[in-house]
């Protein structure tokens, strides 16, 4: 099945914003080698803290200490995907970007609804830069069960774009599938693991389904319950804006997340963890004050996803990308916490301009000039959540275009199938 015939089916499901977008759950058959770890069950907040203590104890490598054996697993898994294309001027030879999100998020990181989709990476990549995009919920997150939808689709060129732990996975991909990727973009990334404990500790990780009991599952109110009804039950006068302020101030925003909108609920079993509150979210993902909307921190906290502890254990497990020879862009916020310790320029080495610049050593086959490490100014780890996110998107678009990876147009468009016309008319 060609990409456009998939797209034509998608379009009938409707367009959410300017881009032509739809969601589809893709069942995939997965066979994978996984590591089995002997880790005490994490069923309380105290267990979550003990796990992070074990993970961050100096001189202790929990990945090695808890390793039991490698095992081959296989099965059918559902991948929840969002496929998007430009709403006008569809390119004759499209380039597809496969977007992999960070732990603690889902694929909506690439298409934030906040502020009228003003922060959407996908809006810029499709409508302005004319790419196709495929974003997906990974590894048991959001509406997916597991997996990688890579083999399901075809396009002229494929670019893999990751953020943070998604970049770690993307970095590990090319050696296994290096013929599959024409270019890679690693955002919120470096190869220096010295600062990861700051992230692990700063998150004050707790049991996800206790932290957001309505949204993540341990309290299931009747589906019609709203904050108004709950407030009425407490017989308090209700000023909705004021209630929101109070909830945020007292860290109750997590407690009520998902209460108003049953559609937002995503149950997570015991063992999934999450950062504790809005302050932890700010510490992990945001840069200098004034460089982001304070409201988006609350939004990020309300819409966060849980994390499987196994993801922290297998961080170092990605194979090297040394066989990859295509263009590579690393783009990291100047104040990134987990990959730069809050300052990407503090290298202590006059010959190393930034911590992410050292990633070049991992790509010996990439020609000089096809590798770039860009520091996005005054930005923290969650690049897409800052006021200047589109500045970063333009850097990515310009780099890919300069390396000949943009979608291209034939002189005579061959865009003629009936379904495709429907798609153009539907927007
Ligand atoms: C697709 O999923 C996103 C969230 O993941 C949601 O906001 C959007 O409404 C969905 N679109 C459709 C067409 O269902
Ligand atoms: C932490 O490590 C100790 C000692 O290795 C172990 O007994 C305990 O089960 C671990 N707890 C967690 C939650 O990983
Ligand atoms: C997993 O499968 C690979 C190849 O199919 C095989 O070489 C390896 O020994 C298997 N590993 C285990 C633990 O069964
Ligand atoms: C995948 O989704 C389908 C339809 O929603 C469902 O019937 C099936 O059980 C799901 N499979 C898995 C592995 O979750
Ligand atoms: C998006 O941001 C720009 C400036 O950054 C602002 O002018 C515009 O009103 C915003 N749009 C929405 C939908 O909020
Ligand atoms: C999961 O599916 C539900 C219902 O289809 C939808 O409302 C929700 O936005 C989806 N969540 C994600 C993270 O895609
Ligand atoms: C722990 O050991 C694993 C291999 O067992 C390695 O990949 C990882 O980098 C190590 N972690 C640290 C922090 O040294
Ligand atoms: C990580 O960065 C710090 C600060 O620049 C530096 O001191 C340290 O040597 C780096 N570690 C590695 C493994 O490159
Ligand atoms: C926004 O980002 C772009 C691209 O990195 C950069 O050139 C520009 O200086 C940034 N603007 C501000 C105000 O930081």
UniProtKB/TrEMBL annotation:
Q: Where does this protein come from, organism-wise?
A: Imshaugia aleurites
Tell me the protein's name: AB hydrolase-1 domain-containing protein
Q: Where is the signal peptide?
A: 1-18
Which controlled-vocabulary keywords does the entry list?
A: Signal
Note the superkingdom of the native organism.
Eukaryota
């Amino acid at each position: 099945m060609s990409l456009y015939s998939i797209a034509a089916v998608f379009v009938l499901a409707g367009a959410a914003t300017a881009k032509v977008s739809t969601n589809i759950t893709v069942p995939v058959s997965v066979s994978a080698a996984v590591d089995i770890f002997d880790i005490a069950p994490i069923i309380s907040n105290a267990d979550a803290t003990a796990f992070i203590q074990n993970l961050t104890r100096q001189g202790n490598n929990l990945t090695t200490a808890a390793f039991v054996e490698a095992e081959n697993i296989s099965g059918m898994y559902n991948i929840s995907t969002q496929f998007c294309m430009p709403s006008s001027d569809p390119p004759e030879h499209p380039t597809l970007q496969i977007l992999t999100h960070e732990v603690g998020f889902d694929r909506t990181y690439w298409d934030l609804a906040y502020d009228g989709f003003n922060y959407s990476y996908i809006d810029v990549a499709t409508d302005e830069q004319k790419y196709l995009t495929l974003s997906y919920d990974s590894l048991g997150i959001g509406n997916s069960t597991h997996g990688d939808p890579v083999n399901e689709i075809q396009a002229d060129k494929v670019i893999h774009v990751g953020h943070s732990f998604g970049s770690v996975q993307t970095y590990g991909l090319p050696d296994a599938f290096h013929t599959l990727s024409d270019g890679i973009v690693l955002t919120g990334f470096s190869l220096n693991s010295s600062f990861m404990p700051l992230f692990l500790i700063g998150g004050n990780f707790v049991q996800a389904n206790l932290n957001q009991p309505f949204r993540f599952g341990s309290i299931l109110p009747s589906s019609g319950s709203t904050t108004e009804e709950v407030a009425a039950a407490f017989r308090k006068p209700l000023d909705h804006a004021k209630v929101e302020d109070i909830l945020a101030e007292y860290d109750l925003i997590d407690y009520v997340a998902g209460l108003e909108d049953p559609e937002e609920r995503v149950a997570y079993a015991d063992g999934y963890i999450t950062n504790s509150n809005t302050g932890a979210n700010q510490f992990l993902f945001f840069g200098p004050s004034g460089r982001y909307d304070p409201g988006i921190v609350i939004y990020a906290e309300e819409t966060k996803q849980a994390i499987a502890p196994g993801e922290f254990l297998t961080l170092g497990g990605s194979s090297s990308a040394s066989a990859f020879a295509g263009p590579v862009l690393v783009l990291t916020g100047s104040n990134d916490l987990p990959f730069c310790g809050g300052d990407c320029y503090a290298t202590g080495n006059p010959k190393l301009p930034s911590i992410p610049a050292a990633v070049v050593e991992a790509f010996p086959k990439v020609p000089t000039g096809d590798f770039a490490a860009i520091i996005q100014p005054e930005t923290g780890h969650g690049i897409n959540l800052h006021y200047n996110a589109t500045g970063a998107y333009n850097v990515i678009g310009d780099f890919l275009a300069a390396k000949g990876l943009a979608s291209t147009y034939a002189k005579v468009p061959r865009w003629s199938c009936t379904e495709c016309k429907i798609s153009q008319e539907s927007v």
